[in-house]
Specification:
Blueprint lengths: L1 E2 L10 H18 L7 H9 L8 H17 L2 E8 L4 E7 L13 H15 L5 E7 L3 E8 L2 H9 L9 H12 L8 H4 L32 E7 L9 H10 L3 E7 L5 E5 L2 E5 L3 H11 L3 E4 L2 H15 L1 E7 L1 H23 L4
Parallel strand pairs: 3-4, 3-6, 6-7, 7-10
Antiparallel strand pairs: 1-2, 2-11, 4-5, 8-9
Length: 347
């Protein structure tokens, strides 16, 4: 815990003085002689005395003053709060290997169902965008708060050849930062891609100068990338991860399939697909994200459930002056109420 005005903590030194003053008042009252008719009357009077209750209101009032004086220093604590203004990009592999059935009913359907469940679990304020990548990458849904639009985009996935994991990351970054001048022609496969929709052409002389930030420091957005194979085309995914790290964006990677690989066939051709866990781990390491392995549909569902809880909260320094001020006010109210109830007066 830290304080905006730590010098005001010196005001707490008044509390010991108040305690000494209270003890002095009690002793002074004991020394005050009260003339009574007899010793028996005095004993009866003492028996009917307030006893321990007389100390409760002063103690509560002392604690109230302590809380109020502590709040004067404006304490600050790191607490977990709901994330505001959050954008999540889902970069999902739609390469031909996603038709493999080692994850039931197959990898593509399992990833679609898990992603849709994840999207529906997010708070409405969180925007979600979807990038599908195979040999090239495409934005199938721009960031939006409409869950129906996102789910419809996920349902429209079409399998293609090739796996360009780096393209999925780069296009996600260009979607998040349309003014950073990120070149995307080589990842989308389109020569005349509309620059205003995603990012400016890198040859634009008027583009703002980009200044790298600390990896993992950008809390307003994150990328979740799901893939089942190793890169076969497109830019190096580690170079793409460095671009994300320079912009402070965390990339959470989810790997499906087996590291040993398996051979799948379709329409007369066959290929061996292998999960490149090392690259996915390095991507998450570079960007201060995290890597998850999903070997089954149930594993994938649990991964997205875990990510859901991480994506919508953040730990940040927050001033908690109001908390201590409220405690002080409640304690003062309790002290006054008990004093009025037990002794018929406040004080």
């Amino acid at each position: 815990m830290s304080f905006y005005w730590p010098s005001l903590l010196w005001s707490l030194l008044a509390l010991p003085l108040l305690i000494l003053l209270y003890v002095w008042i009690l002793k002074r009252r004991r020394r005050t002689s009260v003339r009574l008719a007899s010793v028996q009357v005095a004993k009866l009077a003492l028996g009917r005395g307030p006893g321990w209750r007389r100390h409760v209101p002063p103690i509560l009032m002392l604690l109230a003053l302590a809380a109020l004086l502590f709040s004067l220093a404006r304490p600050v604590a790191t607490i977990t709060l709901p994330m505001a203004d959050r954008t999540i990009m889902l970069a999902m592999d739609v390469s031909g290997s996603m038709r493999a059935e080692d994850v039931k009913p197959n990898r593509l359907v399992a990833s679609q169902e898990a992603a849709k469940s994840f999207v529906q679990s997010l708070p409405h304020e969180v925007r979600v965008g979807v990038v599908a990548f195979a040999g090239t990458a495409a934005v199938v849904q721009a960031p939006t708060t409409s869950r129906d639009d996102v789910i419809a985009a996920i349902d429209r996935f079409q399998l293609q050849r090739g796996t360009a994991t780096g393209s999925g990351i780069i296009l996600s970054l260009a979607t998040l930062f349309p003014d950073h001048g990120i070149e995307i022609q080589h990842v989308t496969g389109q020569r005349n891609f509309p620059s205003k929709a995603i990012g400016r052409d890198s040859k634009d002389d008027n583009k703002p100068k980009f200044t790298p930030v600390e990896p993992g420091s950008y809390n307003s957005a994150a990328i979740i990338m799901l893939t089942d194979g190793q890169r076969t085309t497109g830019p190096d995914p580690l170079d793409a991860a460095k671009m994300a790290a320079e912009r402070g964006v965390r990339v959470y990677t989810v790997g499906m399939g087996t590291t040993s690989g398996e051979i799948i066939g379709f329409e007369g051709w066959s290929m061996r697909v292998r999960l490149d866990e090392e690259t996915l781990k390095n991507i998450s390491l570079l960007t201060h994200g995290e890597y998850f392995y999903a070997g089954t549909a149930e594993d994938l569902k649990k991964v997205y459930e875990s990510l859901s809880s991480r994506m919508v909260v953040e730990r940040k320094e927050t001033e908690i002056t109001a908390f201590f001020a409220a405690i002080g006010a409640l304690l003062a109210l309790a002290a006054s109420g008990l004093s009025l109830w037990w002794f018929g007066r406040v004080g």
